[in-house]
Amino acid sequence: MRIYLSxxxxxxxxxxxxxxxxxSGFRNGMYSPGYSSNLINNPxxxxxxxxxxxxxxxxxxxxxxxxxxxxxxxxxxxxxxLTDASRPARVSAHYLVPKRAIGDxxxxxxxxxxxxxAWHAGVxxxxxxxxxxxxxxxxxxxxxxxxxVAGKRTWDPF
Length: 158
Hints:
Elements: H1 2-13, E1 17-20, E2 44-47, E3 55-57, E4 65-70, H2 75-83, E5 95-97, E6 106-110, E7 116-118, E8 136-141, E9 146-149, E10 152-155
């Protein structure tokens, strides 16, 4: 959640409107006193090794919104889904944020260039925007969502 909050705040100060769904870090103690993101000693690495072919031209629309949502899959499956051009329902995002550090690296995958229109919001509408994909940056957060065990739904924390 540290990465997401830092990214969200940086983008908010740049003028973008963030749309964040399903965040639960506050109740999980991630923002308690003494919790540090340690961005100076452990910087975020942007990984360009898994580009997605699932995008098109953004057109003349200005980027005004940050859309963040979780993947409902683990990291490898999320990368497969977001970069597979052979799927009937092709999807993508500009960025994929793993749940945990990989080795000793805090990594963010850059899947689609920001100048292009990623396919992360479906035919979504938000207020006056009829095409959220054309006016937004899409950030997918690796998270399996929930599990139903013995009739009880348990949500995976962010």
